[in-house]
Amino acid sequence: MAEKQEAKLTLPDGKEVKLPVIVGTEDEHAVDISKLRAESGYITLDTGFMNTGSTKSAITYLDGEQGILRYRGYPIEELAEKSNFVEVSYLLINGKLPNERERKDFGTNLTRHSLIHEDMHNFFAGFPPTSHPMAVISAMVTSLSAYYPDSLDRDTDVSIHITRLLSKLRTIAAFAYKKSIGQPLMYPKNSLNYCGNFLHMMFAVPSEDYEVSPILEKAVNQLLILHADHEQNCSTSTVRMVGSSGANLYASIAAGILALWGPLHGGANQAVIEMLEGIQKSGISYKQFLEDVKSKKDNTRLMGFGHRVYKNFDPRAKILKKMCDEVLAHLGVNDPLLDIAKSMEEVALKDDYFISKKLYPNVDFYSGIIYRALGIPTNMFTVMFALGRLPGWIAHWKEMVEDKDTKIGRPRQIYTGDKVRHYVPIEQR
Ligand code: CMC
């Protein structure tokens, strides 16, 4: 990474500050302000971090203008078509595609660590059946640090915790679902691979045989791959922020799960389906709905549209739209919500409001419709996103921990409150 160029900043008092320019592998440019305050007393203000790079990272490259997304250099389109979720997890975390032996060992370890401590089953029983599964899985992931207390030791072998987490989140997610519908928990089956095992734990019941459908398994693999990383998004930045304090892996990932839950982030897949169902039930036309969005009536947004980084198209949405047609056709599902979604997309893409604001379908626009077709209930959609994003969070946590330049994340602020004033006893107020 070259650090040769320099930018100059002239402050109101005429003082000039020289700032190094950092250039990334793909010719991305940044002004390095790390010494700005020490040299000038000034800080930068960037609400929502629209222009702020929080770290250097070698994991994921994305270009929002060109619609490019690559994990460790590999285009998302190639990975979604040719790889599987376990291999992509290995790639993100270890920085290279595994050879035959490495892939086998990694897969075997994930299979062996799929059980959770029997005592943790009591936790599921303690939650009310109406609990949102995101609340349950985040609590469970935090609890893993209680069951594996060596994770609190900063010299611990993180690889075993990484394996446990990757394997057990899948079990926890499926158990949370089973509890919510009052069905017996289905233990993992070692003969199945990662995604097949997840489907088994979700949909099998002890009273009958369950055969994992190869179509469903492939669809889950692809969905998880598409969600596996997205560089410094809200939840990943949260994982890095929490981890920068020295918090253990489980605590850092639990924080990421909670950040993901919001409807502007991973919660959007659930919000899209609720929006489409709302349109269907209310009887208003989708065109009227789009008019309400444009006039910002009740702050209505077209959920599943728009992205902080993609300003042309989201390459994940492109893959998902095609996949949506294929999966629904394979399963013989005819979902009226898909018709509404497609009609809205067609109109929105020609409408000046959406064009001028560069709003395009994002990864969440079609993923919910696919999950529905697979039989996954709406409140589990964000859990699916979490399952997919997990290797990305882990890769970033590991990269941060291993980076000798890591410092605790601690932004500054511009204070806009009262100047000093003195305490007034209550009887004088
Ligand atoms: N529908 C209608 N208007 C929108 C939308 C939308 N989905 N998204 C942005 N806008 C408008 C917004 O009102 C604003 O208009 P104005 O300039 O008149 O104030 C302008 O576009 C810029 O919006 P912003 O909120 O300042 O942009 P942002 O970069 O801060 O927000 C976003 C990005 C994803 C939060 C936003 O586009 C959004 O709320 N989308 C809907 C929720 C969604 O689908 N989220 C999933 C994102 S992809 C999955 C993930 O990685 O999390």
Compact description:
The chain is mostly helical and 429 residues long. Helices cover 52% and strands 6% of the residues.
Number of helices: 18
Strand order of the largest sheet: 1-2-3
Query: Based on the structure given, which CATH architecture of the largest domain is correct?
Result: Orthogonal Bundle
Strand portion: 5-15%
Structure, explained:
This protein has 429 residues and is mainly alpha-helical. The chain has 3 domains: 6-68, Rubrerythrin, domain 2; 76-262, Orthogonal Bundle (Citrate Synthase, domain 1), CATH 1.10.580; 268-374, Orthogonal Bundle (Cytochrome p450-Terp, domain 2), CATH 1.10.230.10. 52% of the residues lie in helices and 6% in strands. The strands form 2 sheets. The chain has a 3-stranded antiparallel β-sheet with strand order 1-2-3. Helix 11 crosses helix 18. Residues 48, 230, 233, 264-266, 268, 293, 301-308, 357, 359, 362-364 line the site of carboxymethyl coenzyme *A.
What are the salient characteristics of this protein?
429 residues, 6% strand, mainly alpha, Cytochrome p450-Terp, domain 2, globular, Rubrerythrin, domain 2, 18 helices, binds carboxymethyl coenzyme *A
Which helices and strands appear, and what pairs or packs with what?
Elements: E1 6-10, E2 16-23, E3 29-31, H1 36-40, E4 60-63, E5 68-71, E6 74-75, H2 76-82, H3 85-94, H4 100-112, H5 120-126, H6 133-147, H7 158-180, H8 194-203, H9 214-227, H10 234-243, H11 249-260, H12 268-282, H13 286-294, H14 315-331, H15 336-350, H16 352-356, H17 363-374, H18 381-402
Antiparallel strand pairs: 1-2, 2-3, 4-5, 5-6
Helix pairs in contact: 2-9, 3-18, 4-7, 6-7, 6-11, 7-8, 7-18, 9-14, 9-17, 9-18, 10-11, 10-18, 11-18, 12-17, 14-17
The chain binds carboxymethyl coenzyme *A.
